[in-house]
Amino acid sequence: MKRAAEQWFMELSEGRAGTNSDGKSIRSSVKTDVLSHVSIKRVNEDQRKAELRSRKEALQQKKATPEEKLCLKLKEELEKQNEINVSDALSQIMED
To answer: Which domain of life is it from (predicted)?
Structure first.
């Protein structure tokens, strides 16, 4: 883009402003360069967003894992307590 601007100024001083050596409009060239640059930036930003979303999802999975482990431990403890209660009840019945 800088080169296109320099070329435009050179042509302005030579009296040929507005076209480059192949007859293409300088404005058109600059516009194409800018649009290309914007397009590349957009693709890069989309890629960055995808990476951030992926990292966020991985972090949420890591966070969920300890919670799930805690729930599983509590469930196991409850099941063991229920088994103890059933065993105590059976022992009580046999004693009577």
So the answer is: Eukaryota
| Domain chopping of the chain, boundaries | 2-95
What values do phi and psi take at 74, rounded to 5? -65, -40
Closest by alpha carbon to 24, among 35, 39, 13, 8?
Answer: 8
Question: Residue 65 class from Cβ within 10 Å (0-12 exposed, 13-18 middle, 19+ buried)?
Answer: exposed
- Pair of tokens at residue 81: 């307590």
Q: If you ran DSSP here, which 8-state letter would residue 15 be given?
A: T
Helices and strands in the chain, H and E counts: 2, 0
25-75 pLDDT, tens digit per residue, is 667 777 788 888 888 988 999 999 999 999 998 888 788 788 888 998 999
Q: Which of helix, strand or coil describes residue 16?
A: coil
pLDDT at 80: 96
**Structure token pair of residue 28:** 């058109």
